[in-house]
Specification:
The structure holds three protein chains of three kinds. Chain A is mainly alpha-helical. Chain A has helices at residues 14-23, 27-44, 46-49, 81-117, 119-133, 137-148, 152-179, 182-190, 194-230, 242-248, 261-286. Chain B folds into two domains: 15-268, 3-Layer(aba) Sandwich (Rossmann fold); 286-514, Rossmann fold. In chain B, helix 4 (119-130) packs across helix 5 (135-148), helix 8 crosses helix 21 (519-527) and helix 16 packs across helix 17. The two termini of chain B are 19 Å apart. Chain C is mainly alpha-helical. Chain C is built from 13 helices and no strands. The two termini of chain C are 13 Å apart. The relative contact order of chain C is 0.13. Chain C has a single domain (93-318), classed as MetI-like fold (Orthogonal Bundle). Chain C is 76% helix and 0% strand. In chain C, helix 1 packs antiparallel against helix 12 (285-312), helix 5 (93-128) runs antiparallel to helix 10 (229-266) and helix 10 packs across helix 11. Classes of the chains: A mainly alpha, B alpha/beta, C mainly alpha. Chains in contact: A-B, A-C, B-C. At the A-C interface, helix 5, helix 6, helix 9 and helix 11 of A face helix 1, helix 6, helix 7, helix 10 and helix 11 of C.
Chain lengths: 292, 545, 321
Amino acid sequence: MQQSLEVRSVAPNRLLRALKLVRSAPPTAKFGMVVVAIYAFVALFAPLLAPYGEVEVVSRVPFEPWSASHLLGTDQLGRDFLSRLIFGARNSISIALLTTAISFVIGCLLGVLAALVGGIVDQAISRLVDALMSVPDLIFTLMILSIFGSSVTNLILIIAVLTSTRFYRIARAAALNVASLDFVEHAKVRGESLLWIAVNEVFPNILPLILSELGMRFCFIFLNIAALSFLGVGIQPPTAEWGSMVRDNAALINMGDITPLIPAAAIAFLAIAVNFVVDWLLNRASGLSEEG
Amino acid sequence: MKGQTVTATPTVPVIDIVDLKIEAKSNDQWSKIVNGVSLSIRPGEVLGLVGESGAGKSTLGLAALGYLRPGAKVTGGEVRLSGHNILAVPEEERRKFRGTKVAYVAQSAQAAFNPVHRLMDQIVMVAVDRGGMTRGTAEKRALDLFRALQLPDPQNFGRRYPHQVSGGQLQRAMVAMAMICNPTLIIFDEPTTALDVTTQVEVLISIRKVIEDYGVAAIYITHDLAVVAQVAHRVAVLRYGEVVEEAPIAQIMERPVHPYTKSLWAVHEMPVDHDAQHGGKGAPLLAIAGLGAHYGDFQVLTSIDLEVGRGETVALVGESGSGKSTLGRVIVGLKELSSGQVIYDGKPLQGTIRRRSLQTLKQIQIIYQSADTALNPRQTVRKIIGRPLTLYQGLRGARREARVQELLNLVELNETHIDRTPGQLSGGQKQRIAIARALAADPRLIVCDEITSALDKVVQAEVLRMLMKLQARLGVSYLFITHDIEVVRAIADRVAVMQNGRIVEQGGKDQVLAQPHADYTRKLLDSVPDMAVGWLDGIVAERAA
Amino acid sequence: MTTKSHPILSMAASRIGLGLLSLVIVSLIIFSAVSFLPGSYASAILGQNATQAAISAMEIKLGLNRPWFVRYLAWLGAAATGDMGLSFSGRPVMALIGPRLKNTLVLASITAAIAVPLSITLGIVCARYRGRFIDKFLSTSTLASISIPEFFVAYVVMMVLAVKLQLFPSMAGIRNGMGLGEQLYRMVLPILTLLLVILAHMVRNTRAAILSVMASPYVEMARLKGEPEKRVVIRQALPNAIGPIASVVALNLAYLISGVVVIEVVFVYPGVGQAMIDAVRNRDVPVIQACALIFAAAYIGFNLIADIISIVSNPRLLHPR
C-alpha cells in the first residue's frame, strides 16, 4: 500500500527547487557537477586558454620533456602538448555532444512513433533495431568505417545511428508504458490526433527517463570515439583528439613517461563525472536513494 | 463466537503497543505515518484495525512484527511482545520470532508466494528451520491446516506451484503458512481485499474457522467495516495515524461515537430514491442489441441487450472478468464489436473511435476508476479541463478560462485549483477534475467505470451525491460500471448483472435487488457482507441447514 | 499427455527463430557492405594496374556476374563451412585469421571463465549488503571504472606492472613455438586488463538484476517470516534472478568483444581484433566481413543461450497449469 501524503504543498519556484536539489546531492554528484563545469569552461574558451595553436609546431625536437615554456612538453611532431590537450577538450566534447544529439532525436522520434502506431511499423523498426544491436557497436563501426573511410562526418553518423537504437529501445518502452495509461486512452476517446497525443500526453512524461539515458549515452559515445581514434580509425590528424594523442605518444610509456596517459585520464575524468551525476539523478528518479 | 466475550481474567497481553510513533520519508520529507498509537491484545482475541488508505494500518501491522519498510523509522514508543520491547533489540533478534511467534498474512498472496518454490516447501520452511519440527511433522500439520481451511484435494495441494492454484486458494494457503508454527499472534493485512465478493465469503469463513479452532490472537486490518464485523471482537478505528475510536465490535456497529467512524456509513446511509424513475422519456438514448466481442479467439461478450434511457442511471454490476468494463469500452469505441449493434440516439454507432465524428465522440464520455492514471500528471487543471473546450467548441483565451472556472464550480471546486497539477490534489479532488473534464465536452452519456471504488467512503458519498445533482441539472445519462452493491443501491435507476460476458439479469433497481430471480444475482447479493455483526454466522448456519 | 507441445519448447523454438533472423539480417548487411565499396571487388583484389580483361576474368572466376542473392547464398554457404573467400592481399581470409582466432578465443575464454563467476559473486555480495560500506565502495568504484577507456586501463597496468615493477613483459607477442607456460605468462597483462574492464560492467548489472528481484513482495514476505537475510538472497531472490543475470552476462560479452580489440592492439597480441584493425586501415573488406561475422555470430549465440536459460528457469513455463 502506498503511504504518500494526500495533498502535497504547492511547489515553490523552480530555481529555488533546483538549488535545493543540488545542495542535497551526494558528494560524488557534486564532484561530478564541478568537473563537468570545468570541462565545459575549458572547451568553450580553448583558444584563450591554450598557450599555442592547435597544430602549431613549436619545437624541432619531438617528445620534448616538461619545461617552463612547454608545461607538458611536446608531442611526436614537436607541437605543444598542453595546447593540444586543451583544444582536444573542445574537439572531443563537441563531436560527442553532436553525435549524442543526433542519436537522441532519431531514437526518440522513432521510439515514440513505434509505441503509438504499433502494428507493422513497430515490428519493422524493432526487428531492424534488434539486428543492429546484435552486433557489438565497435565491430559494426569498424566495418562501416572501412568501407566509407574515416571522416568525422562518417564517424558521427555511424555512431549516431548505432546509439539511436538504445534511445529507440528506451523511448519505445517508456512510451508504451505511458500509452497504456488512462489519460492517453482518454485523449484517443476524445478524438485527438496521434501527433497531439505524442507531443502533449506522452513526451512530457517520458522526458525525465530519457534525459538520464542521454547522460549515460554521452559517456559511451565519448568513450567510443576515443577508442576508435586510439585505434587510428577515428578522428584523423592533425585535429587534436584525446584518443589519438594517446596513440601517437604511446611510445613514451615504455620509457616510463606518463605524459601520454594524461589525455586518457582526461577522458576518464569527464566520463566518471558525468556518470556520477547521472547515477544520482537515476537513483532519485527510481526512489532508490542510498540514504534512508 | 461473537456472542461470548473473551474471559476477562488479567492475563498478559499477547502484544502491547505503547504510544508508537513512526515516520516515513517521501519526497525528501519526513511525515508522520503512525502518531502515538496504543493497542493491546489478549490471548485469543481478534482486534479489527479499520481505516482508509493512508491511515497507517499496514505500517502499524508490520510494526507488530518489529518490521519497518525501507524509508520508515520509529520515533517513539514501544512494541511489547510477551512483555519484551522488541523495538529495543537489534534486527537479528527481532527476526527470530517472526514466523514462529508472530505471523503475517499479506493482501496479495499471488505476489507474496515465491513463484519458483512449491507451496509445501514455502509453507513448512519456517517450521523446519526454526520451529523445531521435522519435515514430516510439519507436513502433517500443514495437511491438517489445509483440511481446516477447506482446500480442495489437500493431499496433493502442497505439491503445486503458486501459479497453479486460484487466488482464493492461494490466500488460504498463506493462512496455513502463517499458522504452521502455531504462533500466538497473526497479522492479517487486508487478506480478502483483492478477491471477488463471492470468493471473499469462502476465505472469510476459512479464516474465522482456523482462528477459532486454534485459538490464535489476531490483528485484522481492513478498510471494510462490514468485513471486520464478521471476524473481530474489538475494533480500533485509525485515521491519519491515530486511533480515533476503540470499542467492542457490537458497540461500534450500533453506537459509533466519533464523527469519522460514523462517516464510514456515508454511502450506506445515502437516501435511496425508490420512486423517481428518471429514464423512460421517449426513445432510449443508447440501445444495444445482440452485441458480442472477442479478444482473439476468446469471446468476452455474448449477446448483450441493454438500453440506457435519457437522464437515466443504469448500473452494470459484476465481478472482475465478467466483461463489464469491456462493454464500456465497446460503447466509447475503444474496442470493436464482433456482432450485434449499438444504436445511439436512433442511429447505429460506428465501431471504433477513428470512424466516429468529433460530434459523436463529444457526446459519449468516459470516466475512469483511478484518477491518478486518468489525468496527465504533467498538465495543470487548466489544460486538463480546457483541452476538450478547445477541441470541441473552439474556445480559447478568456472565454475558455471562464468556462473552466464554471466547470470547476460545477464539481464543487474553485479557481484556486486551476494552476495545480494532479500531484497537488487529493484523491477526491482528482476524481472531480476527471468529472469536470467529461462535463467540458457537454456529453449526453457518461460511462463511469468504477469511478468511486478507489475513494474513501465519505468522499465516495460526496461524489455520488454530486453526480446525482449534475444529472438532475444537465439531464445526462450514466452507465455506471461497479462491483459495489452499496453504490448501486444509492444511485441506480436500473441494474444489469453480468457474469462470464453475459447479462444474466436486468431490471429496475428495487426489483433486481429485492427479488433477484437469477441464481448468480442471488449468490452475488448474498456474498456482500452486511453492516452487521453475525451476518457470516447466518451464512454458515444457512449452509449447514 | 497432452497433444500440445510443451510451452518451453515452443518458446525456445521461437527464440532460436528470432536469433537466426537476426543473424540473417546481420549477414545481409555485412554481405552488402562490399557493394558500397568504390570500384569493383575484382579490381580491388587485382590492384590498380590490372587490365580490363583480367578484371573481367576475375569477376567470372569469383562469380560476380551472378545475381546478388545467388552470390549471397553462395557466400553464406561457404562461410558456414569456414571458407571466407580471398582477402584483397590475395591470400585466403581464413588462412589469415584462422590461427589468430584461436589466440583470441583463448584470451576471451580465460577472461570470461574468471569474470563471470567473480562478477556474479560480487553482484550478490553488493545486493546482500546493500547500502553498507562494501556495496557503496563497489558501486562507486565500478561506476568509475566503466567510465575509463580500455586503453587507459591497459596502459596503467602496463606502466605499473611491466615498466616500473618489470614483473611481466609489456608486449604479449605469443608465437606457436612457445611453451604453454610462456604463452600464459605473456597473456597475464591482457587478461588482467580485460578483467578490470568487463568486471565493472558485469558487477553493476548483476547487482541491479538482483536488486530488482529483491523489491518483490515475496522477498518482503520471506523477511516477515523471519528468514535470515543471507537465505532471503540465496533462496528467494537468486532463483528468480537467474534469467535476468543470464541476459546481463550475455549482453556484457559485447564489452568483452570490443575490449579484446583495443587490448590486442595495446599489447600487440596476435588475435582477430588486431587483424581487424589492420584490415580496416588497409580497407581489406573480405577480412573485415569475416571478423564481423564471427563476432556477430558469437554475440548472437551468447544472447540466445541466455534467452533459453531464462525460459527454462521460469517456473510458469516449466510447470504449466
